[in-house]
Amino acid sequence: MELLEGIQTGLLTALSWHALLYCFIGVSVGTFVGVLPGIGALAAISLALPLTYYLDPTDALIMLAGIFYGAQYGGSTASILLNLPGTATAAITCLDGYPLAQQGKAPLAIFVTAINSFVGSSIAILLVMGFAPVIAEFALEFGAEDYFAVILLGLVAASTLTIGSPFKALSMVALGLLLGMVGTDVNTGQFRFTFGFFELADGFSIVAVAMGLFGVSEIIANIGQSQSVIQKVGHIRFRDMLPTRAEWRQIIWPTLRGSGIGSFVGALPGTGPGIASLMAYATELRLSKTPERFGNGALEGISAPEAANNASVQSAFIPMLSLGIPGDAIVAVLMGAMILHGITPGPNLINQEPQMFWGLIMSFWVGNLMLLILNIPLIGMWVKLLSIPYHLLYPGILVFICIGVYSADNNVFDIFVVLGFGVLGYIMRRTGFPATPVLLGFILGPLLEENFRRAMLLSKGDATVFFTSPISAVFMVLSLIFISSVFVPGLRDRLARKRPEVVEDPE
Amino acid sequence: MTRSDLFSFTPGAVVVATGAAAAVGATSYPLGSLVRPGPGFFPLILAIALMVMGVGVLVETYVKTRATTTETPATDTRFAWGALGCTFVSLLVFALSVERIGFVPATMILIAICGLVERGRDWQKLVLVAICISVLGSVVFIWGLGLPISAFGGS
């Protein structure tokens, strides 16, 4: 049994003392940044990335992934208590979580979201264990043109399935891909778009681009806003947390449905937890016999989206671990981290690095159990954190961004890069251009070009190869459908209306 | 068409201009052939895609302004020039000074600049923050990771 063997290898790795330690650090940092509005998981991961250069790659990945899914747990806390989403994906939780808190049911809401997060994650981890190896085996057959097509599909899906203007998102993909071209061309040694800067010979540093677009720009946006100070949350007692029997019955199906939707959406390349929780909420709203309760503190309204966003975060590892294609910006940075450690994510990973592959997956179980403890008995500690005023917090974050990005390459130039991308990110934010596609494009750009060139070389310059190879053709057609949906507004609406129904089948 | 209407076209125009600039840049590298695409080939395709999408953004803006001619676009929040300027200057000064005067003084300057801009500033607490960050940063990055900068003074 390959699966059992894998589980055994994974457990041995994930239960070593150093893996446990880094997993704990990861999920704690994740909860920390998730709880605090104004610092996202992406900024935290890019900040921690240079620190992991000195670690064993598996430990590094376990820690960084822990930050990612840990933040999803923490994100709901601020939504419920302050009506401020700790992470962008927790925005949906505000809708019913905050009314619950106003009714004095904050402890119950926090307990329910933690349990739902755990269930959602668990279901998705089972799917990762089941599907990632199978898809990886299938993907071993992929040729360069198939890779090109699947990367393209990921990029197109990521930008057309967002809320907001698809043109803006698509133009940001193109910009990101162009940014990925900066530096030395691997095939010819030609310097491209370096503007005479020697520091750009290796291209922009991933850490600097991610921290600028997501860290600095977020800080700029948050400084300007008046801070709502936490008045009084009250003491959160364990006794108040436990749902009654009727409440358990109320949340069980929404949780399972949310997990199913989240796992499915997360596994698609290019769609993140934001869309997953939105779709889960919409589905519950439609299925509910009493939709008027939604928005006034319906438990289903927090359990389904919370299960969905956690599930999507875990299942986002399916395309990353099996195909080497990140589902969203955070997974893209994790992939960047693997590449920096000299490991190429892709179908060969499971055979070449079984200890890393299974160790990471098993660490998800360990991390989620830790998160359950961190978020139920120890929730009071995190709630206190919310009382730190932002104007004392952000100068420290800025210092750590600077020194963190400097430490990646011991180069002051990268601080200027952060600065530039921070300003760009803020302007983009204000003008409605999404930053996620830029980062996805930036990280996938070199891969896309490499596979394009290889496909061209192998097919002797025949561009139709993308449509004559069967695997590639499927992906190309899907991409074309997404793109045409942008130009034909009616089709887009119809797709958008249909989508929740398509995934309703509980898995 | 009013001035604010014209202003709303700026983002799309900037995208098109960026694409055009990238296209010019790309054509200065060898384009190669379809069999062996050169270093300029792929960037050129991307630059053209960027321009096309920029035109898409422009068209979209045009349709939107046509639809809402009577109403002035409501700007809910102002552009945070203060925050932008503060962050810009503080990071710039940090980048220029950290290798010359050391990590701790550069940190102090960065935090002081942030403090100057904040309205409800609390210098006492800010000093406390600065000391904590300096100590933590020095321990983790200089002592722990061995970065080639010193806590005080040039390196």
TrEMBL record, chain A:
Cite the DUF112 domain residue spans from the record: 20-440
Q: Which InterPro entries did the record assign? A: DUF112_TM (IPR002823)
Highest taxon, organism lineage: Bacteria
TM region(s), chain numbering: 19-49, 61-82, 108-135, 147-180, 200-221, 323-344, 356-376, 388-406, 469-491
Q: Would the keyword Transmembrane helix be found if you checked this record's keyword annotation?
A: yes
**Per UniProt, what is one Pfam family of this protein?**
TctA
The protein's UniProt keywords, in alphabetical order, are: Membrane, Transmembrane, Transmembrane helix
Recorded protein name is: Tripartite tricarboxylate transporter TctA family protein
TrEMBL record, chain B:
User: Where would you find the membrane-spanning parts of this chain?
Assistant: 41-59, 79-96, 102-119, 126-146
DUF1468 domain location: 13-148
Q: Which UniProt keywords apply?
A: Membrane, Transmembrane, Transmembrane helix
Identify the domain of life. Bacteria
Please tell me whether the keyword Hydrolase is annotated for this protein.
Answer: no
- The reply to whether Transmembrane helix figures as a keyword in the UniProt entry is yes
Quote the InterPro entries the UniProt record gives: DUF1468 (IPR009936)
Q: What is this protein called?
A: Tripartite tricarboxylate transporter TctB family protein
Q: Which organism is it from?
A: Thalassovita gelatinovora (Thalassobius gelatinovorus)
